TrEMBL record:
GO terms for biological process: regulation of DNA-templated transcription. Keywords: DNA-binding, Transcription, Transcription regulation. Residues 212-277 form the HTH luxR-type domain. One of its GO terms (molecular function) is DNA binding. CDD domains: LuxR_C_like (cd06170). Gene3D superfamilies: Transcription factor LuxR-like, autoinducer-binding domain (3.30.450.80), Winged helix-like DNA-binding domain superfamily/Winged helix DNA-binding domain (1.10.10.10). This is Putative HTH-type transcriptional regulator y4qH. InterPro entries: Sig_transdc_resp-reg_C-effctor, TF_LuxR_autoind-bd_dom, TF_LuxR_autoind-bd_dom_sf, Tscrpt_reg_LuxR_C, WH-like_DNA-bd_sf. The lineage of its organism: Bacteria, Pseudomonadati, Pseudomonadota, Alphaproteobacteria, Hyphomicrobiales.
Length: 281
């Protein structure tokens, strides 16, 4: 066969492959751009939805919904006490807001994990968001701190990102985002979560200085279930049996309702929730 023909055939046969490679590369770039645009749209929607909102629980709910775009069903926000040892309320406007698995919340409180929580330790000296895997793999992380992350993973929180929020007065808040997947968070994802956390933190500070205390508190579905059964005269043990959760978990949710409704007893909380039409019997 003519060598020139062989060369020509080879070039023709190689052409579709090169075109295919370019097509796949262009497709991946298009998908990447489309994802970036979608995230930008969702972030813009989050900003619009939070505009003018003064209720802290409503703001937290909107942030939770935004985090779902990045497969993060678990989020938590809290301020450090002046001694910077634990995440607890400092002032009336500085809350601890949690959307973590109930069982992990119980375990965390029972074991006083705030004393060894490596996220708290790391947030003191970090200015930007960080992956939990970075802390886990850091040479300065102790075995106890690694066990903390390992145990959190058994409750479905396999990977996470934390955002330290330092204020000019020296106070510190931390926003955590966690997901069940074990993959690393993309840099783009971390950027959006950090921006959303900062916006939430600033909106929360603004709401503390406004007159929004008269707004109807937002209760989670589980909190509503617990306080409805409380209004029906059920004990924590009975509610736990009905809902299939522990008595401690029931008490945890009822205490949250009491805090959100600014009441001193579960009965008063139930009455206030009924009057505000947050729940119905």
């Amino acid at each position: 066969m003519d060598p020139r023909r062989i060369t020509a055939v080879s070039q023709i046969q190689g052409l579709p492959t090169r075109m295919s490679d370019r097509f796949l590369s262009a497709s991946r770039m298009h998908c990447h751009d489309a994802a970036s645009e979608a995230f930008a749209v969702e972030f813009g929607r989050f900003l619009d939805q939070t505009d003018g909102v003064r209720n802290p629980d409503r703001l937290f709910c909107l942030l939770s919904t935004f985090a779902l775009n990045f497969d993060c069903p678990w989020i938590a926000y809290g301020c450090l006490t002046p001694d910077k040892r634990a995440l607890k309320p400092v002032r009336g406007d500085a809350k601890v807001m949690l959307q973590y698995p109930d069982e992990w919340q119980e375990r965390y409180c029972k074991m006083s994990y705030e004393t060894i929580d490596p996220i708290i330790r790391t947030s003191r000296t970090r200015a930007c968001a960080f992956r939990w895997s970075e802390v886990y793999n850091d040479a300065s992380t102790t075995d106890d701190e690694r066990r903390f992350f390992d145990e959190a993973a058994t409750f479905g929180m396999n990977s996470g990102v934390s955002v330290p929020l330092h204020d000019p007065d020296g106070s510190l808040a931390i926003m955590n985002f966690a997901q069940a997947g074990e993959g690393e968070f993309a840099n783009r994802t971390i950027n959006y979560l950090q921006l959303a956390a900062l916006h939430f933190h600033l909106r929360l500070a603004k709401s503390a200085n406004s007159s929004g205390s008269g707004e109807t508190p937002a209760l989670s579905p589980r909190e509503k279930e617990c306080i409805v059964w409380t209004a029906k005269g059920k004990s924590s043990w009975e509610i736990g049996m009905i809902l299939g959760i522990s008595t401690n978990t029931v008490n945890f949710h009822i205490k949250n309702v009491m805090r959100k409704t600014d009441t001193g007893s579960r009965t008063a909380a139930a009455i206030k929730a009924l009057r505000a039409r947050i729940i119905e019997l």
